Amino acid sequence: MRITATLMLVAMAGLFLLSKQFLVLHPGWGYLNAFAEAAMVGGLADWFAVTALFRHPLGIPIPHTAIIPENKDRIADTMAQFLREYFLIPAVVARRMQGMNMARAAGDFLLQPGGSAQSRIGTGAAELFAGVLESLDPDRLGGQVKAGLKLQLERLEVAPLLGQMLTAAIADKRHLPLMDSMIRWAGLTLEDNEDMVRGMIHERANALLRFTGLDERLANSVLDGLYKLLAEVLVDPEHPLRNKIEEGLEKVAHDLVHDPETQERVERIKRELLDNPAVAAWWEGVWERLRQSLIAMARNPDKTLDGWVGSNLAELGKALRDDVILQNQINRFARRTAVGVATRYGDQIVRLVSETVRRWDAVTITSRIENAVGRDLQFIRINGTLVGGLVGVTIHALDSLL
Q1: Is the pTM of this model over 0.85?
Q2: How many CA atoms within 13 Å lie on the side-chain side of 280?
Q3: How far apart are CA 265 and CA 280, in angstroms?
Q4: Which whole number is the average pLDDT over 92-104?
């Protein structure tokens, strides 16, 4: 557009020189000469005006030229003040957002055909998650997580919690499968160690029992009695031994909640475990395996994490699109948040705008403004050339008539 406006000015100068040579031949050349002359004046005047906004014309420091570079700080303050007075007003923000259904718009975005929005957000979330895990120092992060976990466990009173869990399990009969498993385990353990039991009985039997072979019969009787006892306990829900076990569990649960000595013993065991280097090393290994698994999940070509995020985003989008009550709640929250931001941080936002523009150098701000409005300013030059020519023709016509 600058080239077009300049070429038009050059064309007017050429037309002026050409028409001046033929003024004596016909009165019409006078009108053309007047048009070209006035067009040059108008084009030059508007070129000076447009150029003076951004720089000194021809590099000459004429007063009141290079207006924008010379006054960029004042322009920055004026822009910021205008923003503060006419846009960052709570009433204006609230009125503008009153007719906006942001929740519905967000729901429609998340439910775009083909899931493009979900895919972009899900992929971005997975990449961000993996990047964060990879950028952190594994040893330092593992140490921090371990220290944080240890601190929380040290503050946690484990005994009452275990007692309440055990009491709830007994009340709901959830301990019965565990008890049955322990009885079966005892039977299998006894079966695997029959030779050891027989050897113990044989060693403790006197010489007479060994000589008569009664020690073997005694060992068989003991083993048969133990097998029978375990079988009866396993199949009989009301077996006295089972009841004794349950009474013992109930007493343990009660002591864990109410007995200070039991609680102190549990806390001491907890502290010993937390201070054990083997436990610390085990936790660090667990954390590192968990971290690597999470990174692999995010980097997985199947996009496991991406798909999980996408499915949840789809559900959220459907709720935002269809649930009017949810929309009203979210829109009200967004409106109040925006009004609160305008009220509390309006001055900071304005100051940010002002300081940002102030930090721009004169060349930067001139270039940005000129790129934004320069095309229209070149139209001013073109229009000035044409309007100036028409005014020149009009004046020449009036002069000829008079």
Answers
A1: no
A2: 14
A3: 21
A4: 82
